[in-house]
Amino acid sequence: MAKDITAIEVTDLNLNYGTTHTLKNISMRIKSHSVTAFIGPSGCGKSTFLRCLNRMNDFIPSASVSGSVMIDGRDIYAPGVDVIELRKKVGMVFQKPNPFPMSIYDNVAFGPRIHGVKDRTILDGVVESSLRGSALWDEVKDKLHSPANGLSGGQQQRLCIARTIATEPEVVLMDEPTSALDPMATAKIEELCRQLKEKYTVVIVTHNMQQAARISDDTAFFLMGDLIEFGPTDRIFTSPEDKKTGDYITGRFG
Amino acid sequence: MNEKTPGAVITAIASVSLVIMVFLLYFLLQEGLPALREVSIRELILGFDWYPTEEPPALGMAPLIVGSLSVTALSALIAIPLSIAIAVFLSEVAPTWVQEVLKPALELLGFLPSIVLGFLGMVVLAPWLQESFDLLSGLNLLNASVLMGAMIIPIVASLAEESFQAVPRELRDASFALGATRWETIRKVVFPAALPGLLSASLLGIMRALGETMVVLMAAGGAALVPVSIFDPVRPLTSAIAAEMGETPVGSTHYHALFFAGLILLAMTLGINLISMWIEKKGKERWMA
Question: Is A163 in the B-facing interface, judged by CB distances under 8 Å?
């Protein structure tokens, strides 16, 4: 069963912003073809940790990382790693829907195009399958060449998911993807997460505990840069081992 | 104080500036249109001979119009690509400390009085051009265009830099997260998103060049001829007005013709403005809902 294969193995990961120790000795195994949720109060490091998994923290000059993140048997922080290849393999969906100011089609085709796909028929196929994969195809199939900014917030976020899966990644990282959306749009994205794990490994940061409980297989609870507890979601939510996890889940702080 | 007073005061102040604008236009028309009593509009705009002090005067402004357009076009050709390159460097490539030094330096250059540039053109650029290209005079279209380019680069580059900066961080992140390189991100995401801003920055520079007087008066050579090469001297509308207005009797045909030249300049800038508004509207229709 593919479920128990490790997709990402993190060992002793530390991250400092200047002199601030933001992530402290994080180690975890993220299972392939599952949904893993990161929860915790604001500023606990969950988003920063997510951004370590596709090296988006590289753009912050003061950030320094130690430890290792193994994906496909390679440490992504080893010297000589091709960050472009890594990001193609580990896609990311952001907090605020951020479609490019282009047509719907061009948004989805962006990734394949920069990775060298020129053939129109292949692109058409990728655009359709990606939009189907993000459950947006039926809503936009008649207006593929109209501007992406004309879509609603929820549609834009699903477009961003389509854009991410168009590069055929192995892992899809989501950084609070529903925090800017209304409940109906949120429900659609959550449903989508459950479908996405058939083909991808999904890692989602959320500040909404019910969301983590609804959609994830495993949950990691972060607090002040420490990984407090990590395990199957149903166990974390019913019988947490650490008192702090229980206090957070029952709403005593956060 | 009445609830309506602040609104009324603001409206009154705004109306004053509007009235002044209308009055300026009226004045230009009043002084410019009488030229048409003695010379046909066809002769004025399309005539190739500008000998305003001859008897009878020849008042064909085609060489002046071509002069204005050629200096403007050549300076835009020099300045706009350079400005955009500077803006890309400042906004996307340079480390923060370089940005912090270069951006204010660039803006400071924009305050350089045009007469200083004109002076540079006369004493540095002109002799150099004359020697290197074996010309009769270094005061010509190329000289004026280079100086004009130098004059509008600070304006265009700093406005262009601002439109790059205005591209949201989220768009760059999205591009990087898809595996795009920095250069691909600039070319395919940042540049298209900044394009409307780049266009309006460029048009602002073009309008500045069209209206600039001192640089062309000092460095363009001043011959009212249609240039056939970039080494020919030209006499743009602005320098003709500046050079001749003081020498001509008030109320003469020449006097009215110079005001008419002002009207032509006004029409050109208005035209550029309309084009830029049209481009902006098209851009919005294309990308926004």
Answer: yes
Distance from CA of B71 to the nearest CA of A (A): 35
What are the residue boundaries of the structural domains of chain A, listed by start?
6-97+169-249
Q: What CATH code is assigned to B33-288?
A: 1.10.3720.10
Nearest-by-Cβ selection for B170 from A84, A91, A96 = A96
**Average pLDDT over chain A, rounded to whole?**
92
What is the distance between the alpha carbons of residues A42 and A51, in angstroms, rounded to a whole number?
15
Residue for token pair 């991410």: A164
Which of A84, A90, A172, A176 is the best residue to mutate to test the B interface, defined by the most B CB atoms within 10 Å of its own CB?
A84
Which H or E run includes B89?
none
B250 interfacial to chain A (CB closer than 8 Å): no
B195 with B283: CB under 8 angstroms? Answer: yes
B172 with A102: CB under 8 angstroms? no
pLDDT band of residue B200 (cuts 50, 70, 90) is: confident
Backbone phi and psi for residue A236, each to the nearest 5 degrees, phi listed first: -55, -40
Q: Does A147 sit behind a cis peptide bond, omega within 30 degrees of 0 on the bond before it? A: no
Interchain contact A52–B (C-beta under 8 A): no
**Which class in CATH covers the domain with range A6-97+169-249?**
alpha beta
Give B26-48 pLDDT, tens digit per residue.
Answer: 999 999 999 999 889 999 999 99
CB nearest to B174's CB, from A98, A115, A150: A98
Q: How many Cα atoms sit within 13 Å of A124 on the Cβ side?
A: 4
Helix or strand holding residue B215 (H, E): helix B214-219
Q: Which residue has the tokens 């495993």?
A: A218
Is B265 in contact with B68 (CB distance < 8 Å)? yes
Q: pTM for the full model?
A: 0.83
Decide if B196 contacts B279 (C-beta within 8 A): yes
Question: ipTM for the complex?
Answer: 0.91
Question: What pLDDT is attached to residue A254?
Answer: 64
Specify the pLDDT at position A1.
42
Rounded Cα distance between A126 and A142, Å, is 16
pLDDT digits (tens, 9 = 90+) for B148-157: 999 999 999 9
Q: What is the pLDDT of residues B126-164, one digit of tens each?
A: 999 999 999 888 999 999 999 999 999 999 999 999 999
Per-residue pLDDT tens over the stretch A32-47 = 999 999 999 988 999 9
